[in-house]
């Protein structure tokens, strides 16, 4: 009924690709005490293949049961989880650079400008500005920030490095400057230090239709040119992570049921 708990590994798109079932054993921790265990991952998926570089979340899922009488009362069992994030860098390190791009294309009367790209050894941020012919409906919060309603247009993006398989951005944030401007920030995983070109493909849908492709030369910033700032990559050895659990009050029993589809 429980310890070690169920463990799972997911990538930045929250896709679970590796899971470990719960143990039939139990563990009890006293108030103020910690319970830890080592979890080693060899950076491979369920098929034994080395995973791509990027950020991964290692999570554990407990079931905590508290009962003042010392009995198990499963009507009060609640799921409880802790997690840590790790970054697997590209082989040879990650490219780190601030790149001013300032490229503009027009897609069905929507002006799309790739402003800049900020690359670090943990993430990449891509900044766009869009100008639309319609006035953007918005609501102003008393504190001053604006909430825009962009139901009339939708923009999806993906990127590729050196003509490899396109990948989805894992995060997208929007802010606006009415009446006609809004900005988007897309996040992606670190890219290799020797990368030569980034291609970004945006698809516009809704009241405007079309797509645009931006190509950014990375050679001046790449490790191949001698100007890159690649960071050494970690080895593919098992990675050990400590994830503590702290007793909430009284005596806490960490109890875990059998793994079922969708059970956390």
Nearest-integer average pLDDT: 76
Domains counted in the coordinates: how many? 2
What count of helical segments does DSSP give? 0
What are the segments in which pLDDT stays under 50 over at least 5 consecutive residues? 230-264
Global morphology = globular
What's a quick, concise take on this entry?
The chain has 264 residues and is mainly beta.
Write up this protein.
The protein has 264 residues and is an all-beta fold. The protein folds into two domains: 6-89 and 234-254, no CATH class; 97-225, Immunoglobulin-like, CATH 2.60.40. The protein is built from no helices and 21 strands. The strands form six sheets. Strands 1, 2, 3, 6, 7 and 21 form a six-stranded antiparallel beta sheet that branches. It has a five-stranded antiparallel beta sheet with strand order 8-9-10-16-15, with no helix packed on it. The radius of gyration is 24 Å and the shape is globular. Residues 230-264 have low confidence and may be disordered.
Features:
0% helix, single chain, 21 strands, 2 domains, 264 residues, mainly beta, five-stranded antiparallel beta sheet, Immunoglobulin-like
Question: Layout of SSEs?
Answer:
Blueprint: E1 6-11, E2 16-20, E3 27-29, E4 34-35, E5 38-41, E6 54-65, E7 78-88, E8 97-107, E9 110-119, E10 124-131, E11 138-140, E12 146-148, E13 153-161, E14 167-168, E15 171-177, E16 181-188, E17 197-206, E18 210-217, E19 239-242, E20 245-246, E21 252-254
Antiparallel strand pairs: 1-2, 1-6, 3-21, 4-20, 5-19, 6-7, 6-21, 8-9, 9-10, 10-16, 11-12, 13-14, 13-17, 15-16, 17-18
